[in-house]
Amino acid sequence: MLYVGMAVLVALLGYALWEPYRLEAVEHTIRVRNLPPAFENVCILHLSDIHGRVGVFSWPPFLRWLADADLVAVTGDLYSPTRAREPLARALNKIQAPLGVYYVSGNHDYRHGVLAVEPWQPGDRLLDNRVVTIEKDGQQMLLAGLPDLVKGEPRWDEVKAELQRRGLPAILLAHRPDAGLLPDLDGVAVILAGHTHGGQVVIPGYGAVFRHNHLPGRYVAGLWQKPGGPVLITSRGIGTSELPVRFWARPQVIRIRLVRES
Question: Which of 35, 71, 126, 190 could form a disulfide with 122 if both were Cys (CB 3.0 to 4.6 A apart)?
């Protein structure tokens, strides 16, 4: 029995070391109230928690989705201390989309309280505490972003006031899914987040060992919606943090398709 137990442990460890390379492509169709007709079937490519894994940028499903994407959203945690930064910076600079490429900071993007994502220079792609207008065929939506809710300096009151002033349907980017618990999310249709890695290690029948969020239940990834609130979509992310393992929490790239609520 001892040998059987050891064999099982070795097999589980082997799988946990292999799973970080088992990328999956996940698609969600989200119905949006008052979606401008021009934005019907707009596709958003959502990347999160890359942690230096540049292999995704040559993955065929990613390349197909990128070719069709109207907008690319990157929700934080770009690098890993064990991987060179330059390859990811070059890969990020090559990404383009008709409605833009936007990034909000994650907790791992800070050093001593300062955003430090060099050698990449996000420029206008940095959406922290900003609201921008995205336009298609003369019609408009809003895209807003918040920096990491703990390591950054989020100014939700200012962002919220600007969203309310403009009064258009909005998409909010935030690293942590706790953005779904912010007050006064009226007008926000969709929130895109990451941070949790889907728990990174999930025990079947129990859930994630570490949830890294304060939402109800055992939530760590996927769709969540408070009654009357926006749809929150949390990605399991692409990379891993300190431990290079995943278990029952495959890395993923997400495509969100917007359709009008009938």
Answer: 126
